[in-house]
Amino acid sequence: MASTSDIKKGLCIRYNHDIYKIIEFLHVKPGKGPAFVRTKLKSVTSGKVIDNTFSAGHKIEDVRVETRSYQYLYPEGETFHFMNTDDYNQITLQKDSLDSPDLLKEGEIVTIIFNAEDNMPLSVEMPASVILEITHTEPGVKGNTATNATKPATVETGARINVPLFINEGDKIKIDTEKGAYMERIKE
Q: Where in this chain does the record put each Translation elongation factor P/YeiP central domain (predicted)?
């Protein structure tokens, strides 16, 4: 058993007969009344996100997890195939168990979290950022902007990202996987 002081991003807990992963949390200490923790929980079975508030000191049942490195191999319909980088065993996961499957490039190394009790995969943690090549974007017209304007672009995995006007086809860009947003252009 853990308490609200142990809450951190990525912690897996058992709540309402399901396993949830904490994706956001905020400790709130109002001037009047007791402190509480506001959380955003994502179900690892259904992918549904709920908001919940725990009062300070509330006991929560954490789930013992193990993390393992896997290499993403290929997609097949709604399933994605991964290979363990240590023993080369392969597993398949449903598309909805991934946070941002459209940013996953073949050969990418991800961390898969497993429930230590029954060895079931709970969630897939992407790297903080990925580097992808722009396959299609409209050319930016110089002089028609007053502020930081963006245009839509398609990257090699098929995902659509808004990028600054100076980005062209063939450029490699760094993308924040959590927000799905452009970070910077990569020079080679």
A: 67-122
